[in-house]
Amino acid sequence: xxxxxxxxxxxxxxxxxxxxxxxxxxxxxxxxxxxxxxxxxxxxxxxxxxxxxxxxxxxxxxxxxxxxxxxxxxxxxxxxxxxxxxxxxxxxxxxxxxxxxxxxxxxxxxxxxxxxxxxxxxxxxxxxxxxxxxxxxxxxxxxxxxxxxxxxxxxxxxxxxxxxxxxxxxxxxxxxxxxxxxxxxxxxxxxxxxxxxxxxxxxxxxxxxxxxxxxxxxxxxxxxxxxxxxxxxxxxxxxxxxxxxxxxxxxxxxxxxxxxxxxxxxxxxxxxxxxxxxxxxxxxxxxxxxxxxxxxxxxxxxxxxxxxxxxxxxxxxxxxxxxxxxxxxxxxxxxxxxxxxxxxxxxxxxxxxxxxxxxxxxxxxxxxxxxxxxxxxxxxxxxxxxxxxxxxxxxxxxxxxxxx
Length: 404
Known about the structure:
The chain is α/β, with parallel strands linked by helices. The chain is about 50% helix and about 15% strand. Helix 7 (about 200-210) packs across helix 10 and helix 15 crosses helix 16.
């Protein structure tokens, strides 16, 4: 499965890229699809921020994301990485008290905010102390009006971005007027980027949606649902990583992640993925093997009784094939999700008790019976017990896959 996004550079006065505006697309056709702004933004966030590291798309540059009024109010913007996103408030947003309070909250959290296609409506004046960038449509807005506004706000912290700049003359005129950022066909048309992405199980998503909207969260039930869906598990970890502070404790289980987020954020996360899930069949061997590995590592941990946390062992096994599934090295993947040091050590360095579990299951998959016997002996497992554990893991994984 693939996602599509149009990426248009935002340049400085030297015509060097300093950021990218990301625009939702449904295919290789470089036109905005016939969908609502809300649907476009929701899909873009789910596909570009939860499925893959955003750095692969924009590097260390900032990315501008269009936000309609309703999505600002419902808090979706708060789920994005504060250090790399500019929240772009669309021109048709109503500049009322509700929006102002949301803008203040986002600014307090450290987000940069931009007003798209600025309309010169005087009601926006109350917002300006909390706005970083104002975007003027250089073809739609009279240049005299733009100059008047910039002159009236001389000495302010505002940065001005001229969009739809299409000629050298317009670029020169914009620089003279005080613009320092530029965007338009004169520099570059939006470039379509096709990215490999994960799909969600519609059944699991709907069950999660029901659980998170119950009066009280059933953490065991939520954990069980996440345990059976690699896509959702990975996206949840990316979502947690976007919200957590760097000083926070690493996540060791899905229950830990759910408790960390709380009911409101869990509802927001599940609503986000439910709005964009397609219910495609995920019964591939890599997914099945991931589930088997997760369950087998968990059973080995339970057998050891106290050496490792079974939930942590399950996470390690479940994520052990992400490198193959996402076509990315583990170093890049694990930099984006807040897993414990023990899991990272196992996946990256092949060290520690969890790495032993992974090597055990890999030897079993490859029918390397001499090494299987050796590892089983170190864990005080009989050959028959080892076969039973793997058979139980396989049966569990098949049950999960058939439920999809």
